Amino acid sequence: MRYLSFLSVFFLSGQFSVGMASGLPAPLADKDFPAVDMGEVELGRHLFWDPILSGNRNISCGTCHHPRHGSGDGVALSLGEGGIGIGPERVADPDNLPEQHIPRNAPALWNLGAKQWTVLFHDGRIEVDETRAGGLRTPLEDEMVTGFRDLLSAQTMFPVLSQDEMAGQYGENDVSRAVRLGVLTGQGGAWDVIADRVAAIDAYQEQFKAVYPEIAAGQPIHFTDISNAISAFVAFEFRSDDSVFDGYLRRDEALSRGAEEGMALFYGEAGCGNCHSGALLTDFDFHAMGDLQIGPGKGARFENHKRDAGRARVTNEDADLYQFRTPSLRNVVLNAPYGHAGAIDDLAAYLQHHSAPRAGWASFERDRVNLPDLVGTPIFAIADDPQEVSAILAAVEFEDAPLSDAQIASLVTFLESLTGETAQAGGRLGIPAEVPSGLPVDR
Asked: Would you say 272 and 283 are in contact if contact means Cβ atoms under 8 Å apart?
């Protein structure tokens, strides 16, 4: 309590030095985010919500990253192609059944436009790498094209190529056929097909010409132009630095006593701040935390295992087995369920598992898993295999140290202070009334 009084006295007296005496991060500021052109943002907004980017013209980026569900979709593992509806109400289309759930939980989009981000996806398969020609390292390697403005822009290229997410099953449409043939870039490639669809719509042509001088001068619309516009929109729409915690860091707002106690625990005894560091509350690194694994796992179609080896799938290093990127905790209370596979739907329960994963696996409440039904797909194959569970737990970097109920409650109170007003409102601009393709918009 002496520590809390120290914080309170210095805050209220105007002498509190954020990032020095307390070890807290400096607050986010305009300099941490790219400048945006609102014309480009509005273009990206239309593209983000337009199903025309998906192979069968039935899924938009917003389908799985919806403001109604904290910029995720509110379920453990999404149904992409072959699903109908939004969030927990999304079900399999009986006339176009999905082959499987998407292997990992749909991540939130908050602050992905911030300049501090150097790596994206749960396994970090796309990251900044100045030694590469395009400044990025991705699984596409030599097929990676230049023109993506930043890491966030480059991230956009992957969901549209995934048969389970947006492309559709092989043979269903021109995009999925190109993906099946391995033709991604160049004339007739999957990205080219998508760009041609967009370019064929007059309203999009006008928007692109108004935003990009080279297109106004006659250059065709490329997929990189589409992804750059979406990046600008995401950077603007999902910027979140207006929480109570942000006000506290800027020294113009006070935390509640309960949140201060949770903050002291977070940055102190519980050690959360060791990995959830900085203003975005992530170290952008990878750790083996013993998270629960459900669903189809992460593997090629010819593989029959159900595991998700995490970072090791990218690096091929055994030392990286079952490591996943530290998630940002911004707006974490809005972004249930939790973990790379979304196996736990309650924040307090997840914190308890996080502190003692060995005990957590033993007491896993399967009936709490929030997952759209997909008949015939294995959900708990890993949990039912003692060898697989042992392998996951053998990689964990720490010993179980269960937190008390009081400590969990205190941490949750602090984490609630990370919720921004913009995030609670669902973003800055919201869902457009319509998109230039005329296709239905998910609401």
From this structure: no
How buried is 428 (Cβ within 10 angstroms: 0-12 exposed, 13-18 middle, 19+ buried)? middle
The number of angstroms, rounded, from the C-alpha of 296 to the middle of its chain's C-alpha atoms is: 19
- Structure confidence at residue 70 (pLDDT): 97
pLDDT at position 12: 38
CB 237 within 8 A of CB 427: yes
Q: Give the DSSP per-residue string, 294-334.
A: -TT-S--TT-------BTHHHH--GGGTTBEEPPP-TTGGG
Which of the four pLDDT bands, split at 50, 70 and 90, describes residue 22? low
Contacts of 254-258 with CB under 8 Å at 24 or more apart are: 254/11, 254/12, 255/414, 255/417, 256/413, 256/417, 257/4, 258/410, 258/413, 258/414
Q: Let me know: does 339 contact 392? Beta carbons within 8 Å.
A: no
Least confident of 56-65, 107-116, 296-305: 296-305
Nearest to 229 by CA among 73, 53, 58: 53
104 and 64 Cβ atoms separated by less than 8 Å? no
Partners of residue 136 on adjacent β-strands: 128
pLDDT digits (tens, 9 = 90+) for 411-433: 999 999 999 999 999 999 999 99
